[in-house]
Amino acid sequence: MTTRRLFVAGVLLLAAALPLLAQQSTEQPNAPAVWTPKQEQEREKGQEPPTTFKVDVKLVNVFVTVVDQQGAPVAGLVKDNFRLSEDGVPQDIRLFAKESELPLSIVVAIDSSLSTRTNIKLELESARRFIHEILRPQDSLSLYQFAEAVTELVRFTNDMRAIDRGIDRVQIGSATALYDAVYLGSQALETRHGRKVLVVITDGGDTMSQVDYAEALRAAQGSEAIVYSIIIVPIESSAGRNTGGEHALIQMSNDTGGKYYYAGSTAELDRAFRQISEQLRTQYLLGYYPKARVSDSDFRRLEVTLVPAVGEAPAEVRDLHARHRTGYYTSAWH
Questions:
Q1: Beta bridge partners of 67
Q2: pLDDT (tens digit, 9 = 90+) per residue, 63-111?
Q3: Which domains does the chain have, with CATH numbers?
Q4: What span, in angstroms and rounded, lies between the C-alpha atoms of 287 and 94?
Q5: Which residue(s) pair with 261 in the sheet?
Q6: In the predicted model, is pLDDT for residue 244 greater than 90?
Q7: Residue 287 CB: number of other CB atoms within 10 A?
Q8: What is the separation of C-alpha 321 from the centre of its chain, rounded to a whole number of angstroms?
Q9: Cα separation of the two ends of the chain
Q10: Residue 96 burial (C-beta neighbours within 10 Å; 0-12, 13-18, 19+)
Q11: What DSSP letter does each residue of 28-97 carry, written as one string?
């Protein structure tokens, strides 16, 4: 081919490619509001995902459950109903979503220690009903049992047959490594995307964990897990009841934006699971970029309050309560 023909062919190829290049430049996707694990890994390695911009702060996600005086979840609120502060400094809510369709990653941790042997079958059947009701195609669940050791019976999946087989494999042990279960369950949730939930079913006592309460709570807060505790109390005045362990679970649930329930019968177990299911279907997501702060503390305290929106009477939100995690550790970002 002559030099002239090569030149003409090159011009024609360039002319054909120009419209495609122009289309690509005008159809770039928007940067995601929430990082996927792969994108976060690329960011930490200094390899920025395409079409994103490097910034000095990270979007903080706060999932909020709003309930009325009877504890029923409240839907229908708008962005203007929420005020959010970090260490007392008001923040600008940049991301707002209600009844989020983000996927759920759920760890269900079942106490199979010797003290639960009388009621374990009822607990397992109630947990099975809850899992079948709550899990959607986009969700995943991991099943743990804990006694003297913590065992992962089912890795994250939405395969109901695999989950049912895992429930059938729960076996009674001896001691209770409750805090180890919270710690390991939180670690498993840390790299998951979307909403993260840890449901603990136990009689409340820890007898042989390798980590303590503070380490377990920090792991839960670091992974952004919402902890729901179902405390089994068949005989309320039982001499073997571990009230200290119960109070620890109550505090952990409150600090992560979850809730605790007492259950002494199958009906109460089912009611607790039903309320958890309803709350997970009626959540609000608030996202913000933290403003500059003076304190050097690794822990940042969060507060969400409810206010009337434009045109609303104060009474419409006065009796509502917002549940959310009490704070987060900045070291969890690194």
A1: 73, 321
A2: 999 999 988 899 989 999 999 999 999 999 999 998 667 899 999 999 9
A3: 37-99+283-328 (no CATH), 104-278 (3.40.50.410)
A4: 6
A5: 230
A6: no
A7: 17
A8: 19
A9: 58
A10: middle
A11: PPPPPSS--HHHHHHHHTT-PPTT----SS-PEEEEEEEE-TTS-B-----GGGEEEEETTEE----EEE
Tokens 């299911």 sit at which residue?
Answer: 277
Query: Is the CB of residue 333 less than 8 Å from the CB of residue 117?
Result: no
> Among candidates 142, 134, 141, 143, which has minimal Cα distance to 111?
143
CB-CB contact of 224 with 61 (8 Å): yes
Amino acid 228 reads: Y
Query: In the structure encoding, which two tokens stand for residue 211, read together?
Result: 């980590």
* CA atoms 18, 22, 25, 28: torsion sign: negative
In the numeric block, the tokens 């959310």 are attached to: 324
Amino acid at 36: T
Beta strands in 158-277 (DSSP E): 195-202, 226-232, 259-263
pTM for the whole structure = 0.78
C-alpha to C-alpha distance for 298 and 217, rounded to whole angstroms: 15
CA atoms of 210 and 227, how far apart (whole Å): 20
Q: Give the C-alpha separation, 237 to 240, whole Å.
A: 9
Written as six digits, the tokens of 36 are 């996927």
